[in-house]
Each structure stands twice: as C-alpha cells, then as structure tokens.
Amino acid sequence: MAQAPATGLPVLPPVSAQGHQARHLLALPADVEVEEVETLALSRFAGARWDVVPAGVEPATPAPRTARPGEPGVLRTSRHTTLTGPYAPSAPSGPALALPPGTATVFDVVCPRERGEAPYPGGGDREGLARAFPAGLPVREEERALSWLVAAARRLGGSIQVDVAAPVGPGTVLTPDPAAAVDMCVYSDVWLDPHAALAVVAALHPRTRLATEGTPWQGPPQGIGERHLYRGEKMDPELRRAVHAAADDVDIAALTGPKVLEGYGIVVDMGVDGFVAVEVGGEERLPLLLRGLPWTAGGAVAYRVRWEPLDLVESQQERPALDHQVARRRAAVLVSTVVKALHGAVGGEIADEADFLVDAVDL
User: Fold this and answer.
1) DSSP annotation of 39
2) Most confident range, picked from 1-15, 155-169, 268-282
C-alpha cells in the first residue's frame, strides 16, 4: 500500500472513475486553502456540500463527518460529480501526471462522461477545450463540471488535467491564463443617476461619454394603416384603421409621458486598446452567494464593466498575439479602477466574470 508523502496528504489513487465516468484533476499551488475551493464550489453549485470534510477544515456548510487520518475529503457539487482531496501532487502508483512544477495539492474530480459533437474547426477556443477534447466536447453535467474547473483554476492560479486514465492516454493539461478574465460587475442596492455615474468614471479617463444617444422616432411608415398584413389577408379596412389608431395612441402616450430609465451605458474610448463599457441596469439573476440577502430580495442594480477589444477573434484565442495581451493588460487595469470607483460610490459586492466574488481590497 502506498504511503502518505511528507506533506501528510494522502496519495492520489491510480483509479477513481468507472467506465461511464470521466476523471479530471484540479492542481493548485501551495498558497490555496481548501476553504477557497469550497467557496468557489458554493459560488457555482447550489447543492455543493461536503460528504467528508478534510481534517482541519472549517466547512461553510454542515458536513456528516470529518476525514480520518490519511483520508481525503469529498466535496460533492451535484448528485453525480465529486471532488476528492486534497491529495499530494504525485503518487508512485498513480496515473501519469504532467502537472506544472508549482503544484502543491490535487483534487480528483469524477463526473459522468458526456460528450457531444467535435469542436467546430477554426472556432474560438480561449480555454483550450477544443484542443483537449478533439473528438467531442463535454456536454450537460460534464460541461458544467469542466466550465467550473476552468474558472476555478483561473481564479486560483492552478491547472487542470483532463481525461486522466482515459483510453487514449493521460489527457491534456490546461492552465487558464488569469489575465484573460477582465470583466467584472458591481451589484448594489443603490441606483446612480447616469450623470452621477458618468462623473465617477470620467474622473478616471478623459475619453468617457454616456452611451444613451438614440435616433428620434419618426412615427410609423406612411399609409401603414391601409396595407394588408400578408397576401390574401381579408381584415375589414375600418377594423385595420382602428387597430392602428389604438396602437398610435399607445405610442403617443409612451412618448409624451414621464420617461422611465431602466438602464444606460457609459463608454470609455481607449483608442487602439478598444473600449471599456459600463452597462447599468436592474438584475434579478444574481450570483449564488448574493441570493437571499436582505438587500437582494428584489434583485439588485448591476454595474457591469466590460472590455471590448478591437479584435474579437484574437480575444478568443488560447494564446493571443502579444499586442492583444498588452491591450488586455492595460484594459484590465482600467476595468479594475472603474470597478473600485463604482464600488466606492454605491457599495454592494463585486463579482468577476465567473460570478466569483471579489474583495475590493484586492483590486
């Protein structure tokens, strides 16, 4: 029987999945705590819970029992998917590992093997999944598990090794680039007037403007009330005119009544680096960890801050060109600065593009 390594962590077993299951590994650096993995799981999966909590870990949710000495924890994200660990990053009798040198702990992820169609040739593949699954991309439960694994690895500075011990080999190692995740959102119960929000953002960049300009409505096309809806339509001409007159009354009432602003946008022109857009509006679908809070009972105001690069195709490459990386780095600085300023003005919580919460002091 293999012995536990000097770290005190159990060794990774050579087999953990059955024939109908897929096995993936989440590899993490030394500065990542088990509690962080649990928090990210709770951020994505409503039913996430510990079946067995690792020794020395204070779980966020009640656990049936604590792991015995040398036993790993078992974190369940759904009825069919589990993360078992943490394990030591190497095991003499375990699967072939090709993880990065900085790997300190590994979680063994088992989920249903569910594959769909092969990736579309030449399509965007920012995460490298098409490279890892050339015969068929994960779908349904496995897709949800892989999507979370990629997001968690990116957030925690880790990697994933997919399809470990698959019939075709040990699988591919993916190391998501943390710099690729630029967009963030501030959720708050405070609504900023467009000009107030503009003042907050304009103080950070000179080329900032409101994106609320529209085109004046010229009314319906001339004679629309006399036209047939389709060939052979036999509506009574008087009824048709009455229907259009009633529609005109509704339009006139909407245009002459008080204006109700449900959302607006702010655009920052970064020149060759693209644009940073701030989109403000109500949001009912909130990150899991924000649901059920007193101030989110009726939804929240979302201040979404997104980078729009000039080359959208390049932005979806796993290894984009250097000029895109430089532009992305400058945009990320501005996005973080804008998010921090908005959070200072309206409070609330910040989430990244994976709906993982972000502490404002880390920006």
Assistant:
1) H
2) 268-282
